[in-house]
Specification:
The chain is of the alpha/beta class. It has two domains: 6-125 and 202-310, Malonyl-Coenzyme A Acyl Carrier Protein, domain 2; 131-194, 2-Layer Sandwich (Alpha-Beta Plaits), CATH 3.30.70. Helices cover 46% and strands 17% of the residues. The strands form three sheets. It has a four-stranded parallel sheet. Strands 4-5-3-6 form a four-stranded antiparallel sheet. Strand 9 (267-273), helix 12 (278-286) and strand 10 (291-295) form a beta-alpha-beta unit. Helix 2 (30-43) runs antiparallel to helix 4 (61-81), helix 6 (108-125) packs antiparallel against helix 9 and helix 9 (204-215) packs antiparallel against helix 10 (241-248).
Length: 315
């Protein structure tokens, strides 16, 4: 599409998954179906069954990550064929792998194979049930940091948007931090349904092991920039990608900072590709002036393309 403004593709992270995600793309688009089938063959998993039916595995980290990246990139294949092109890509945590693939640094199948191994490493990083995460709303990041800096075994995991950060760590520490933050004026403290203290120092070993996995992955030159969760800045040199992805496992996700970087670089339209509307919701709290769309279904894709065409973006 020819356009005057800049478009970003955004990709959700773990937690966005839902049974049935991507099924309409699988049924209606040959390239999307081929990617699901290729992922099944690569991983020796029935990816269609995993993504399209109600099952307990979809919420297990070692399966979730491959399922969500497969779905997001299958949707992207259909979106790009409809003529929608991005000037930059960004993904929240796990979603960064979809962003790197959309930017040309990894093939879709490379991204899927890598996150399958990443999910297993993260699942194995700490014993089950000892770590957790919690979303804190109604406080600025500085106030949350002032509390967590006084504590052991808890830290900030995500800078999502103004008034919302996520904390991570051992269960008891996260619960105590939640109580202290409530006393400090937090509007809500919501414990997240996750299987570990992701984006915390407890995942450092998983990051080291992920470096070994990434060492055998060939990263290609980028067609467009993507945004690093670790730095919140554009990446234009794919030689940086492996180190940033390895660090990302245990580093805080600077999502708000990354979105602000895209806006400074002239992005005025952001399209979330994947199940849910989480990133679209964050965007409204970061900058209401940016136009936000989400594509979670085939009908969403048709609507978004039509609306962008109506604004003068010709396919």
């Amino acid at each position: 599409m020819n356009k005057t403004g800049k478009i970003a593709f955004l990709y959700p992270g773990q937690g966005a998954q839902k049974a049935g995600m991507g099924k309409d793309f699988y049924e209606r688009d040959e390239d999307a179906r081929r990617l699901y089938d290729s992922a099944s063959e690569l991983l020796n998993l029935d990816m269609a069954e995993l993504c399209f039916t109600e099952n307990s595995r979809l919420d297990l980290t070692e399966y979730t990550q491959a399922a969500l990246v497969t779905t997001s990139l299958a949707m992207t294949a259909a979106v790009v064929k409809r003529g929608l092109k991005a000037d930059v890509a960004a993904g929240l945590s796990l979603g960064e792998y979809s962003a790197v693939a959309a930017a040309g640094g990894l093939s879709a199948i490379q991204a899927i194979g890598t996150v399958r191994k990443r999910g297993i490493l993260m699942q194995e990083a700490v014993p089950p049930e000892i770590g957790t995460m919690a979303a804190i709303t109604g406080l600025d990041a500085e106030t949350v940091t002032a509390v967590t800096d006084q504590m052991e075994a808890v830290s900030i995991a995500n800078y999502n948007c103004p008034g919302q950060v996520v904390i991570t760590g051992l269960k008891e520490a996260v619960a105590e931090a939640g109580r202290r933050l409530s006393q400090a004026g937090a509007r809500r403290v919501v414990m997240l349904n996750v299987s570990g203290p992701f984006h915390s120092p407890f995942l450092a070993e998983a990051g080291t092991r992920l470096e070994d996995v990434l060492a055998s992955v060939a990263v290609a030159p980028l067609h467009i920039p993507y945004v690093s969760n670790v730095t919140g800045a554009y990446v234009t040199d794919s030689s940086l990608t492996k180190a940033l992805l390895a660090a990302q496992v245990s580093a805080p996700v600077r999502w708000q900072q990354g979105v602000e970087a895209m806006i400074r670089n002239g992005v005025d339209t952001m399209v979330e590709i994947g199940p849910g509307k989480t990133l679209t919701g964050f965007l409204k709290r970061i900058d209401k002036a940016v136009t936000a769309y989400n594509i979670a279904t085939w009908e969403d894709m048709e609507r978004v393309v039509q609306e962008l065409e109506a604004k003068g973006l010709e396919a």
